[in-house]
Amino acid sequence: MKKVWRWTKRIVLGTLAFVVLATGITLGALHTNWGRNRVRKIVEDQLQSTFPGSTIGKIDGSVLGDLIARDVTIMGRDKRPLVTIKKVTIEAALLPLASKTARVTKIDAEDVVVYAHDQGPPPPEKPPEPSTPSEPSSWSVELPAIHAHGRIEIETATGVERIDDLDTMVALSLRSGEPLKASVDTTARWRNQDLAVRAFVEQGDSLTVQYALVTLGSARVLAANAHVDGTRIDANVFAFAPAALVKQLAQVDLPGNAVVFAQLANTGHLTVDATVGAATARVLAKADLETKAVHAIVTADVPDLAAVVPNRQGEPPIAGSGTVVATVVATPDHVDGIVTIAGEAPRGTGNGLIAISATRERARVLVAATAESPPSRGDRQAPKQDLFAWRLRRLGGSTLIERANDGWFLREGTLEAAATGDAGEVTASLSATGALSPTPSLAVQGTVDGRSVRYNDTAIASLHTRFAATEIPARPTGDVSIEVNGLRQGTLAVPVVTLAAHGTLHEDGTIDVDLDRHRVRTADGQQWGGNSGHVRVTEQSIAATQLVTSSGKARITAQAQIGRTSDALTAKLTARDIAVATLDPTLQGTLGADVDVSRRDGMWKGTATIDANQIVVPNRPVLDGKLAVKIDKRRVTAVATASNPAIGSATLDLDV
Q: What is the mean pLDDT of residues 209-235?
């Protein structure tokens, strides 16, 4: 027996000596450059398994004290750095391992830079491998002090936003049989404002947010007693944003401070109350996250539109009050909604309705609106150029969109509107149809009619316009016809004007318009008309050619080109046998003219000749005359001649 015990002691002591020796050799190796590089390689391989391309520059320090990793780079999916860390210090406690507790006393990250940018779509997730339920781990993990200091750079379409002076402290605890507990305390600076995030959460079978507070300057968002269990969510959220801070950060003018309070119950019921200045809004909703169905009603009341709608310079202020009520029922396959709007302003009252019904294959939208205005004061001297003097009387329309092949097709689209005011009455009707996607190609047609329309010193008794266009928006081609009755401008009166034209907007932006016909009936009963004329609009100029109009023997031809990027101009006009009575009914006789002028860099050049034949002025003798004018930059010469067989002739020369 003594012999067995002696051999047992030898084996145990020998084994213990071997373990001590092996442990010493291992620890010694880990404190060599070779050992530390081996640790770096193992950690780097683990990092690259999740973030390919990531690197660790160097590891030094001691596994029994502070282990330091330097120049850590974590790469994103786009092969660009996602996080860089100049130095990471890790201090682990070995003694708690005896009680099955992995405790990392300290993790300190210095000079951390987080690069937030679009990395493209993530790769498709692999289907999970089948597994059997496992027993909970008997080990505990404690990370009481994770500290990081650095900045965040957010890449946007307009540049890079920086969150500086980032200082965050995180504590994690996962004890055996208990949920993961985490606390976060972060401070930073963004756009010259103090930013802070403080939160405490627990993650087990469900997620519990005991509290989460985010502050930016004097703005804050607070979430408390939030629980997430699968699709069941229970939370309370409060938000406050002062108007001055919103203006400073987002360049948006609010009529007052914004306050939002939201309650979400695990039954799916959501209540949101919001105020912005004196305006209020409420949302009542019921959501089923499993079926992805939503029922909601939204109400909003704005007692003072002038405080909400910004006033543009030169336009009258928008005043009055408004109320909006919207209801929606939505599922993944169908959406139904109605929006009603009612408003009251000094110029009248109005209300509108928008109804939407949509499926995966088709969508229909109905729009209707009416407005009532107080009786006109009959002040016909009101500014006629004030477009806000028009008051909407009626607005209605419908839209039917259907899926066709691999895109969407506008099967039916209509819009009708009517407006009245001191400047007249106008009604419009519009319809459209055609492909919306993948390649839009729409056909649009409609009419615009007006009565007693006035603008400044121009008045129109009645107006009728009809138009149609196709191949919108790629290469719009269309035609238009206009009929104007009772046109009056100052002392000029034209009883009837009709015009028909067709044109095309080319891919390079050039517009070609052909005048098909025009007819003008003057106050003295003459009929002028023609069937030619072409207008081309380019980025550099507007050119009109082949313009011809005639009435009996009288004929006028013209062409001109006007620069759009310069003051360049050229014009030619020829007139023959024009009755003077067309210009002044008290006169008789005819006129002829030839004009050829140009302008460049503010300088004019050209000639003009006017021939007057048998001009009869009341109580004056019959005269023939001629005027010849020549312009050459700053020099103007003119020769005027008047003659009568009975009294002779006279000539006037002018040279300036």
A: 90
Q: In this structure, are residues 358 and 331 in contact, taking their beta carbons and an 8 Å threshold? A: no
Phi, psi of 2 (to 5 degrees): -60, -35
Report the distance separating Cα 394 and Cα 371, nearest Å: 6
- 496-548, pLDDT tens digit by residue? 999 999 999 998 889 999 999 999 988 778 888 999 999 999 999 999 999 99
Q: Which helix (H) or strand (E) holds 461?
A: strand 458-472
pTM above the 0.70 mark?
A: no
Six-digit token pair at 238? 């409060």
Q: Give 177's DSSP letter.
A: T
Beta strands in 33-158, from DSSP E residues, in sequence order = 55-61, 66-75, 81-93, 101-116, 140-156
Beta strand extents in 405-423 (DSSP E only): 407-421
- Contact yes or no for 83/151 (Cβ under 8 A): no
**Omega cis (within 30) before 473:** yes
**To which H or E segment does residue 249 belong?**
helix 243-250
Backbone φ and ψ for 473, nearest 5 degrees, come out as -105, 0
On whether the CB atoms of residues 333 and 361 are closer than 8 A, the answer is no
- Which residue, chain included where needed, has tokens 């974590």? 74
Instruction: Please give the mean pLDDT across all residues of the chain.
Output: 82
Sign of CA dihedral 216, 222, 227, 229: negative
Average pLDDT over residues 263-275: 91
CB distance 181 to 204 below 8 Å: no
CA atoms in the 13 A half-sphere facing the CB of 596: 2
Instruction: Give backbone dihedrals phi and psi of 523, rounded to 5 degrees, phi first.
Output: -65, -25
**Interior/surface letters 271-296, b for 16+ CB within 10 angstroms, e for the rest:** ebebebbebebebebebeeeeebbbb
Q: What tokens were used for 339?
A: 């929006």
**Predicted local distance difference test score (pLDDT) of residue 642:** 82
Query: Which single residue is written with the structure tokens 């506008």?
Result: 410
Per-residue pLDDT at 14: 39
Judged on CB neighbours under 10 Å (0-12, 13-18, 19+), 350 is buried
Query: What type of residue sits at position 370?
Result: T
- Counted residue by residue, the chain has a size of 656
Q: What is the mean pLDDT of residues 237-261?
A: 91
Asked if 471 and 506 touch (Cβ cutoff 8 Å), the reply is: no
- Label the pairing between strands 219-229 and 232-241: antiparallel
Q: What is the spatial distance between Cα 19 and Cα 23, in angstroms, rounded to a whole number?
A: 6
Chain segment 70-117, per-residue pLDDT in tens: 888 888 888 889 889 898 888 876 566 556 666 778 888 899 898 988
For residue 250, the surrounding DSSP H or E stretch is helix 243-250
Given the structure tokens 């997730």, which residue do they identify? 125
Q: Is the sign of the CA dihedral 261, 262, 265, 266 positive or negative?
A: negative
**pLDDT tens digit sequence for 9-25:** 443 333 333 333 333 43
